[in-house]
UniProtKB/TrEMBL annotation:
This is Alpha/beta fold hydrolase. GO terms for molecular function: hydrolase activity. Gene3D superfamilies: alpha/beta hydrolase (3.40.50.1820). Keywords: Hydrolase, Membrane, Transmembrane, Transmembrane helix. Residues 27-151 form the Serine aminopeptidase S33 domain. The keyword Transmembrane applies. The chain crosses the membrane at residues 41-59, 146-164. It comes from the Bacteria. InterPro entries: AB_hydrolase_fold, Hydrolase_4, UCP037442_abhydr.
Length: 282
C-alpha cells in the first residue's frame, strides 16, 4: 500500500492508502469507512480485493486516524463534512489525479449514507452499501435501543463536557470524535428522519434526489443497527437511484457473530468475503 495525502477543497489533508494489482486492473474500488473506524481496519479486505485484480483506495475522514489533529479539542469540523468535502476530495483524486473513472464505491455504514453529497457521481459505476442504515435509536431492538439512548442523553454529552470531545475509545465505539461531530451525530440519531432535517435546513437536500447511481445494500442478519426497518429507510434518501437489498443470514455462513463491523475481519475471508466479491462483480 502506498501512503498518500489527499487535500480537500478547504485545504484539509486526508491520510489515505492506495494500491494497484501487479497485473492489469479490472476496476477501482473506494472503501469508505464507518463512523470512527480507521482505514487500517479494512486493510486485510483491501489486500483481498487487490488480489482479485482491483485497484483500491482507503482513507481516513477528517478527525479520524491519520487525518486527526494532535488535539481534538481544537477541531471544529462537523460530520456532514465527511460527505461534502472528504468524499469529494477522494473521488476527485482518483478522477483528476489518477485518470480513473467507472469507480465502485464500497461504503460501510456512514460511508454509504453520505454519498448523496458527491458532486460528480457520474464517475461512479455503482455503490455497494454495507450495513448502512438510518440511525434513529428507537428503530433498534431491545435492549440496544436503550443503551444507545443512554449514550446520547447521558454518556455523550458528559464526554463532551468533561473532555471537550467524544472519548469513544473509552466505551469501545471506535475512534474519538470532535465535539461538533458528536453533537451533530447525536442530533441525527435522536430524530426519526435521521439527518433529513439537516439536509432541508442547510445541506442542499436536492443533491440526494439527484443521485441516480445504482445502490446494492447488503446487511447482516445479526446487526442491530442495520435491520429490516432501518436499511430500507436509509435508501429512501435516494429516491431516484436503482436499488437492491440483500440480507445475509449470518448462520448460513458462520456460527460466529458478525454484527455491524465484523464482515471485514480476516476470519471471514473464506465465507463472507466471496459474497461481497460476488456483489462487486455483478
Amino acid at each position: 500500500m502506498e501512503k498518500i495525502v489527499i487535500t480537500a477543497s478547504d485545504g484539509y489533508q486526508l491520510s489515505a492508502l492506495y494500491a494497484a494489482p501487479s497485473t492489469k486492473s479490472v476496476g477501482t474500488i473506494v472503501i469508505s469507512s464507518a463512523t470512527g473506524v480507521r482505514k487500517e481496519f479494512y486493510l486485510h479486505f483491501a489486500f483481498f480485493l487487490v488480489g482479485q485484480g482491483y485497484t483500491v483506495l482507503l482513507y481516513d475522514y477528517r478527525g479520524i486516524g491519520g487525518s486527526a489533529p494532535d488535539d481534538l479539542r481544537k477541531m471544529d469540523a462537523y460530520m456532514h463534512e465527511w460527505g461534502t468535502k472528504d468524499m469529494n476530495a477522494v473521488l476527485n483524486y482518483l478522477v483528476e489525479g489518477k485518470g480513473l473513472t467507472d469507480i465502485i464505491w464500497l461504503g460501510h455504514s456512514v460511508g454509504a449514507q453520505l454519498i448523496g453529497f458527491l458532486e460528480k457521481p457520474h464517475h461512479i459505476r455503482k455503490v455497494i452499501s454495507i450495513n448502512s442504515a438510518l440511525g434513529y435509536w428507537r428503530y433498534f431492538p431491545f435492549p440496544m435501543n436503550w443503551l444507545i439512548w443512554g449514550l446520547w442523553y447521558f454518556i455523550g454529552p458528559l464526554m463532551v463536557k468533561l473532555y471537550g470531545y467524544g472519548v469513544m475509545t473509552k466505551i469501545g465505539w471506535g475512534e474519538n470524535l470532535p465535539r461538533n461531530m458528536m453533537k451533530e451525530w447525536r442530533s441525527w440519531c435522536l430524530n426519526k428522519t435521521y439527518f433529513r432535517a439537516s439536509l432541508k435546513q442547510a445541506l442542499q437536500a436536492d443533491q440526494f434526489s439527484q443521485f441516480t447511481t445504482p445502490i446494492t445494500s447488503v446487511y447482516m442478519s445479526d446487526d442491530f443497527i442495520a435491520n429490516d426497518k432501518t436499511v430500507p429507510l436509509m435508501l429512501t434518501f435516494f429516491p431516484n437511484a436503482p436499488q437492491r437489498i440483500r440480507k445475509l443470514a449470518v448462520r448460513e455462513f458462520t456460527q460466529e457473530k458478525v454484527g455491524h463491523t465484523g464482515v471485514f475481519r480476516k476470519k471471514f475471508r473464506h465465507n463472507l468475503w466471496p459474497v461481497l466479491i460476488e456483489e462487486i462483480k455483478k
